[in-house]
Amino acid sequence: MLKGRESLIRLVGRRRRFLRRRHSLLTSSAPQHQIGCKECKDEVSTGNGNVDEEEWVDCPVCGKKIRGEDRVVNSHLDKCLARGSKRKLSQCTLFQLNFCTRPKVTVSSIESNVTRIDVGPSTDDGNICDLASVTFSKNICDLASEMNSSDGPENDIQDESKSSVCNRVNRMENLDGLLKLDDERKLLSDAKTMQIFGLEGSPQHQITDDRIDNIADSPLSLSEKRMPKCVEPSEDDDNSEILLDTFVVGRRFGNDGELTVGAMIMLSRDPENVKDQNAIKVLTKDTDHNKELGYIPRELAQYLSPLIDKFHLRFEGHITSIPQHPHAVVPIQIYSSGIVSFGEKDSSSLQVFNSLRRNALSAAEFSQTHSPIPAKYQHNLLLLLKEVLNINGHLFTEGEKTLLEAFLSLSDDSQRLFARLYARKGPWFRMASISYAEICDYEEAVKGLSEAECVTLFESMDKLQNNDLKEVLNVLNVGELRDLISSLNKTHKKIAQNSDRGTRKQDYIARVLAAYQGGLCPNLTSMILGKTGRCIRISASAESVFWRAERLFFLNGEQDLSEFLLVDLGIVKYPAYNCIFTDQIFPDRSDLLSYEEAIEVAQIMDESLDENNNELVSRCVEISASNVSSFVEEDRSSHSGSMAAFLSCFSASWVYSKVILLGVSFLEHEQRFKEAINLLKLLLDKFKCDRRRGYWNLRLSVDLEHVGCLDESLEVAEKGLLDPWVRAGSRVALQRRVLRLGKPPRRWKTPSFSSSVKRKIVEVHVQGRPLNCKTGVKNVFYGEDGDRCGVEELALQYYAGEGGSWQGVHTESGIWLTIFGLLMWDVVFADVPNVFRTKFQTAPLDLETDSFYEVRRDLIEALLDKIEHGMAEELLIMSWESHVGTACRGVNWDKHSLSELRAAVTCIGGLCLASICRNLAQDYRSWSSGMPDLLLWRFRDDYRGEAKLVEVKGPRDRLSEQQRAWLLFLMDCGFSVEVCKVSHAPI
Hints:
Elements: H1 5-12, H2 22-27, E1 56-58, E2 65-67, H3 70-82, E3 104-106, E4 116-119, H4 137-149, H5 154-158, H6 162-170, H7 176-187, E5 194-197, H8 209-216, E6 243-248, E7 264-269, E8 280-284, E9 292-295, H9 298-309, E10 315-319, E11 330-336, H10 347-369, H11 376-392, H12 398-408, H13 412-423, E12 429-430, H14 442-451, E13 455-458, H15 466-473, H16 478-491, H17 493-498, H18 505-517, H19 524-532, E14 535-538, H20 540-554, H21 562-568, H22 589-610, H23 614-636, H24 643-647, H25 652-669, H26 673-686, H27 693-706, H28 710-721, H29 728-741, H30 754-757, E15 763-770, E16 781-782, E17 788-789, H31 791-800, E18 807-810, H32 814-823, H33 825-828, H34 851-855, H35 857-868, H36 872-883, H37 898-908, H38 910-922, H39 924-927, E19 934-939, E20 945-953, H40 961-973, E21 976-984
Parallel strand pairs: 15-21, 20-21
Antiparallel strand pairs: 1-2, 3-4, 4-5, 6-11, 7-8, 7-10, 8-9, 10-11, 12-14, 13-14, 15-16, 16-17, 18-19, 19-20
């Protein structure tokens, strides 16, 4: 793989279906800095056009015409009333983690340049409570009916003050849920809050608070993280039987089976559950075999689990009804089988029991009125959109916001269908083959998406281009394409004579396209439609907006909506940290558009390499070089100080530099060294403060040598050594080039670093019986036990035996990064502004920059002082027990056990371990790779140990410059290091 290809693939991430500027980027010499976005239609009609009276109704609050569907009416009325005096409820973000909640942005004065973002209250355990908004659509419908049936003209109804409407709503008896959640917010008002000081200036397209609250009244407000209000114990409580009406959740993960009304069930604790230690399973009560149906709601389980564990209550019950939906919740009734007895002296236990009992009753009652959301992926998508609009609303045009608001007001079926299609590859899908159990009415779902311009339908060829036809044909299988070709051949034999006779699917598609473009069959489109049936795809405008929202949410191309699922299933647990914003990543829309355009060029570059289209590859490199030459320095000056280091990766110039670097590797592979030299000089000229300068200087020196410019090659290497951004392996490589090229008569003076670079590294030779001796294939040997093994395992066997009775692991950089992550955990996730921007980060954005050490210098040095004084093992144990299983950059929980890490830390010693941690903290990017293959240790009788680091090389391997740099550094730190060379045993 070309150098930089893998990095570019990670940058691009999931390839976009539609690249709107592909043609303009590849045909024009000047960069395009604006994105044309089609304005979406207004959500409601003004009444001037032709409106179907059966499908459109008047809003009793604002007077606008809206679709007469219950879901649309309820949502629209919620929005209208939210603009009045109705109290607004806040909703926190995801998963009850200690992240930044939904910020409520308020500007204290016009003159102020600071925006304050208040992050909501947190609970005692550090998790943020998610107070969900309440949708009260039924009550709104009752209000609308009451208003329409009241006396007086319609104009009086429509002109009624909003405050009066809201007061009438608040008097309704069925708004207990709304008031209950409002009381919860008051109870938590004294909890810890974090003030985040916001951004200078006022964004051009800043979204208002009212507009955010309007969006919050969509299905987004039905958060799954609802908690009932705790009930204080009463003296009148008794320990009588507990009878609860609740339901079974999580059926999709349980055993399938037919349910019957009245079937007996029982509850069973599941304390080992990864997601919830209070989890309680629901089992069928069968004498032969108990089948797992699912779980009871989390809000109820937190009170029933201590009743089961501490008071040994047993719960049984029965199924009360069967839902129509296969994954819907199953209503059940449960009761405790027995009464707990308390003595006179056991009043404290009685109070605890009564408190748990009353809270369980309250939780059961609460869950009955707030059933969970069946489609979690829909809920996750809505959360993503709301979070992006809250923080980055100024980056969207009014048309894009209108499209998102239209999507948020769609029915559940429409939103779920869109989320399903967006996650699939596509782009076209047959309507006949789409089947999801949670979607009830496909026709209405498609109709709503089509009206919101979120999807495109294939029902005729009027709106399709040739490329669209090719994509539509891809939904047909080979047999259907063959039948289509046969039908064409019966009436148009020229198709068979003039077309490729290949039997692959793409060959058949090419023959059909040739017939269409040649006009040989006028009714071809109807024949294709007859084979495919109705087809649907995500529209270009919706794909563009949702891709932008997803990119702004995750800030990278490697993560997508599947990250929510990994967290929901307990597969991935992200660390707890605070998000503090003082600067925007994209201050205005033009910066974002330039960045997106650069991502498109990178995707085209990646696709062109897959297709071996060298002409298109060269064009992408030319575009990138032109853009870097024109505005890279202006881009870099948009941020100042340490911010520029880690936020520069979100600039267009940084993306173009990745394309150029890949282009350099491509040109070197093609032996077009002069063109590669020009690109490298451009990078070195425009990026004065970049950690990649070491590699650029090295490749420039090598390429100059390829073209015979030895003097210039030596000069580049010498200047590179004076560059403070040239470090680690690149620095060692340039030093060795200077020593090789700088011999008399070019240079007479020996450089001062000569003796350091030429230091001898101890070598150990091990012989093994080879299994294969092929060049370019990994070496395989027979181990001492006769099994096949690699050179590293063979070296471990040698050191465990005659090599000195060493214990050890083959880990390379893994164990060192794991130790660093565990020891420096609190430093890595410290409260530093702007380094945590999303809910799914495993490290701060500045980890691989100089600012990581500079900003946290005091914290790091204080921790390193403890490590030097022998506290490393204690810190390691505490960090392991506190964070085991939590995702963190570099930490591998599965590969290394705590006992191995403790042994390694003890034997390495405090001084050497502190030196390595300081080196990684100061320059994580340069030193996070190339560490020795083996870490060996052994203990003495007094529990003191020693460690050794070994780099293993096969018969045809040699040290890389990065590996050599690590070995020299470790020697300076006082480590015992060796190079173990494995060779073939003589026959």
